[in-house]
Amino acid sequence: MAKPATVKLHPSKNPQKENVRGAMVALLQKHLGTAIDLSYQCKQAHWNVKGMNFIAVHKLFDELHEATEAFVDLIAERLTGMGGQAQGTVQAAAANTVLEAYPLDIVKSEDHLRRLSDSYSAWGKALIEGIEEADEAGDDLTADLLTEVGRGISTGLYFLESHFQVEDAGHST
Questions:
Q1: To 10 degrees, the CA torsion angle through 117, 73, 99, 60?
Q2: pLDDT in tens, 96-137
Q3: CATH 1.20.1260.10 given to domain 18-166
Q4: Residue 4: what pLDDT?
Q5: For the Ferritin/DPS domain, which residue ranges apply (predicted)?
Q6: Disulfide check for 142: which of 19, 134, 135, 158 has CB 3.0–4.6 Å away?
Protein backbone atom coordinates (compact mmCIF):
# COMPACT_ATOMS: atom_id res chain seq x y z
CA MET A 1 0.00 0.00 0.00
CA ALA A 2 1.40 3.39 -0.98
CA LYS A 3 1.94 5.82 1.85
CA PRO A 4 -0.27 8.92 1.63
CA ALA A 5 1.14 12.43 1.48
CA THR A 6 2.01 14.12 4.74
CA VAL A 7 -1.07 14.65 6.87
CA LYS A 8 -1.45 18.05 8.52
CA LEU A 9 -2.29 17.63 12.18
CA HIS A 10 -3.89 19.98 14.67
CA PRO A 11 -1.87 20.56 17.83
CA SER A 12 -2.63 17.83 20.36
CA LYS A 13 -1.35 16.48 23.66
CA ASN A 14 -2.02 12.98 22.34
CA PRO A 15 0.95 10.94 23.60
CA GLN A 16 1.61 9.23 20.24
CA LYS A 17 4.57 10.51 18.24
CA GLU A 18 3.54 12.92 15.49
CA ASN A 19 4.65 10.59 12.67
CA VAL A 20 2.54 7.76 14.15
CA ARG A 21 -0.44 10.09 14.55
CA GLY A 22 -0.08 11.19 10.93
CA ALA A 23 0.05 7.59 9.70
CA MET A 24 -2.93 6.58 11.83
CA VAL A 25 -4.98 9.60 10.73
CA ALA A 26 -4.39 8.58 7.10
CA LEU A 27 -5.33 4.97 7.92
CA LEU A 28 -8.45 6.03 9.80
CA GLN A 29 -9.47 8.39 7.00
CA LYS A 30 -9.61 5.40 4.63
CA HIS A 31 -11.79 3.52 7.10
CA LEU A 32 -14.00 6.57 7.70
CA GLY A 33 -14.66 6.83 3.97
CA THR A 34 -15.37 3.11 3.82
CA ALA A 35 -17.73 3.24 6.80
CA ILE A 36 -19.71 6.08 5.23
CA ASP A 37 -19.81 4.24 1.90
CA LEU A 38 -20.96 0.96 3.45
CA SER A 39 -23.53 2.71 5.59
CA TYR A 40 -25.19 4.12 2.50
CA GLN A 41 -24.80 0.93 0.51
CA CYS A 42 -27.01 -0.60 3.21
CA LYS A 43 -29.50 2.27 2.83
CA GLN A 44 -29.49 1.85 -0.96
CA ALA A 45 -30.44 -1.80 -0.45
CA HIS A 46 -33.02 -0.86 2.23
CA TRP A 47 -34.76 1.62 -0.06
CA ASN A 48 -34.81 -0.57 -3.16
CA VAL A 49 -35.17 -4.19 -2.07
CA LYS A 50 -38.04 -6.26 -3.51
CA GLY A 51 -38.96 -9.92 -3.29
CA MET A 52 -39.50 -12.77 -0.86
CA ASN A 53 -39.01 -11.94 2.81
CA PHE A 54 -39.16 -8.25 1.91
CA ILE A 55 -39.93 -6.87 5.35
CA ALA A 56 -37.30 -8.96 7.14
CA VAL A 57 -34.56 -8.02 4.67
CA HIS A 58 -35.75 -4.39 4.53
CA LYS A 59 -35.39 -4.19 8.32
CA LEU A 60 -32.03 -6.02 8.28
CA PHE A 61 -30.57 -3.51 5.83
CA ASP A 62 -31.73 -0.65 8.06
CA GLU A 63 -30.18 -2.30 11.14
CA LEU A 64 -26.91 -2.81 9.26
CA HIS A 65 -26.98 0.87 8.24
CA GLU A 66 -27.44 1.95 11.87
CA ALA A 67 -24.63 -0.30 13.11
CA THR A 68 -22.27 0.96 10.43
CA GLU A 69 -23.26 4.56 11.12
CA ALA A 70 -22.07 4.06 14.71
CA PHE A 71 -18.67 2.98 13.33
CA VAL A 72 -18.53 6.23 11.33
CA ASP A 73 -18.64 8.22 14.55
CA LEU A 74 -16.13 6.02 16.41
CA ILE A 75 -13.60 6.27 13.59
CA ALA A 76 -14.07 10.01 13.08
CA GLU A 77 -13.67 10.71 16.79
CA ARG A 78 -10.45 8.67 17.01
CA LEU A 79 -9.13 10.40 13.90
CA THR A 80 -9.86 13.90 15.22
CA GLY A 81 -8.65 12.97 18.69
CA MET A 82 -5.25 12.29 17.17
CA GLY A 83 -5.19 15.77 15.67
CA GLY A 84 -6.61 14.89 12.25
CA GLN A 85 -9.35 16.58 10.30
CA ALA A 86 -12.18 14.12 9.56
CA GLN A 87 -13.18 14.13 5.91
CA GLY A 88 -16.76 12.96 6.16
CA THR A 89 -18.50 14.39 3.12
CA VAL A 90 -19.98 12.16 0.44
CA GLN A 91 -17.27 13.31 -1.97
CA ALA A 92 -14.48 12.55 0.52
CA ALA A 93 -15.99 9.15 1.32
CA ALA A 94 -16.11 8.29 -2.38
CA ALA A 95 -12.45 9.27 -2.73
CA ASN A 96 -11.32 7.31 0.36
CA THR A 97 -13.38 4.11 0.36
CA VAL A 98 -11.87 0.70 -0.30
CA LEU A 99 -15.21 -0.59 -1.62
CA GLU A 100 -16.38 -0.94 -5.19
CA ALA A 101 -19.29 1.25 -6.21
CA TYR A 102 -22.67 -0.24 -5.34
CA PRO A 103 -24.81 -0.96 -8.42
CA LEU A 104 -27.87 1.26 -8.51
CA ASP A 105 -30.06 -1.16 -10.45
CA ILE A 106 -30.23 -4.06 -7.96
CA VAL A 107 -33.77 -4.98 -6.91
CA LYS A 108 -33.97 -8.64 -5.81
CA SER A 109 -33.32 -9.29 -2.13
CA GLU A 110 -30.84 -12.09 -2.84
CA ASP A 111 -28.84 -9.82 -5.16
CA HIS A 112 -28.65 -7.12 -2.46
CA LEU A 113 -27.66 -9.72 0.13
CA ARG A 114 -24.86 -11.06 -2.07
CA ARG A 115 -23.60 -7.61 -3.09
CA LEU A 116 -23.56 -6.33 0.47
CA SER A 117 -21.75 -9.52 1.50
CA ASP A 118 -19.04 -8.62 -1.00
CA SER A 119 -18.71 -5.16 0.53
CA TYR A 120 -18.66 -6.46 4.09
CA SER A 121 -16.00 -9.00 3.16
CA ALA A 122 -13.86 -6.38 1.40
CA TRP A 123 -13.98 -4.03 4.37
CA GLY A 124 -13.31 -6.91 6.77
CA LYS A 125 -10.11 -7.68 4.85
CA ALA A 126 -9.07 -4.01 4.89
CA LEU A 127 -9.76 -3.84 8.64
CA ILE A 128 -7.48 -6.82 9.29
CA GLU A 129 -4.74 -5.08 7.29
CA GLY A 130 -5.42 -1.86 9.23
CA ILE A 131 -5.12 -3.66 12.57
CA GLU A 132 -1.74 -5.02 11.48
CA GLU A 133 -0.64 -1.54 10.36
CA ALA A 134 -1.71 0.01 13.68
CA ASP A 135 0.06 -2.79 15.59
CA GLU A 136 3.26 -2.24 13.61
CA ALA A 137 3.06 1.50 14.33
CA GLY A 138 2.64 0.78 18.05
CA ASP A 139 -0.85 2.30 18.26
CA ASP A 140 -2.77 -0.18 20.39
CA LEU A 141 -5.79 2.09 20.70
CA THR A 142 -6.32 2.40 16.94
CA ALA A 143 -5.73 -1.35 16.57
CA ASP A 144 -8.35 -1.95 19.28
CA LEU A 145 -10.85 0.41 17.60
CA LEU A 146 -10.39 -1.33 14.24
CA THR A 147 -10.76 -4.70 16.00
CA GLU A 148 -14.09 -3.55 17.48
CA VAL A 149 -15.28 -2.38 14.07
CA GLY A 150 -14.04 -5.63 12.53
CA ARG A 151 -16.12 -7.68 14.99
CA GLY A 152 -19.21 -5.72 13.97
CA ILE A 153 -18.48 -6.12 10.27
CA SER A 154 -17.91 -9.84 10.77
CA THR A 155 -21.30 -10.13 12.48
CA GLY A 156 -22.96 -8.17 9.67
CA LEU A 157 -21.37 -10.49 7.11
CA TYR A 158 -22.73 -13.47 9.05
CA PHE A 159 -26.25 -11.97 9.00
CA LEU A 160 -26.03 -11.38 5.24
CA GLU A 161 -24.47 -14.69 4.24
CA SER A 162 -26.86 -16.72 6.40
CA HIS A 163 -29.57 -15.99 3.85
CA PHE A 164 -27.88 -18.07 1.18
CA GLN A 165 -25.69 -20.55 3.04
CA VAL A 166 -27.58 -23.84 2.96
CA GLU A 167 -26.72 -27.44 3.53
CA ASP A 168 -26.50 -29.50 0.36
CA ALA A 169 -26.84 -33.23 0.96
CA GLY A 170 -25.27 -32.96 4.42
CA HIS A 171 -22.35 -30.77 3.35
CA SER A 172 -22.06 -27.10 4.23
CA THR A 173 -21.52 -24.68 1.37
A1: 20
A2: 999 999 999 999 999 999 999 999 999 999 999 999 999 999
A3: yes
A4: 46
A5: 26-164
A6: 134
The percent of residues in the chain predicted with pLDDT above 70, rounded, is 92
Output the CA torsion sign for 83, 89, 92, 98.
positive
How many Å from the N-terminal Cα to the C-terminal Cα in the chain? 33
Whole-number average pLDDT of the chain:
92
Alpha carbon separation from 65 to 7, 27, 32, 98, 153 (Å, rounded):
29, 22, 14, 17, 11
> How many other C-beta atoms can be found within 10 angstroms of the C-beta atom of residue 163?
17
| C-alpha to C-alpha distance for 171 and 173, rounded to whole angstroms | 6
DSSP element (H, E) containing 167: strand 167-168
Domain range summary for the chain, segments of one domain joined by +: 18-166
Residue environment code for 129-158, b if the CB has 16+ CB neighbours within 10 A, otherwise e: ebbebbeebebeebbebbbebbebbeebbe
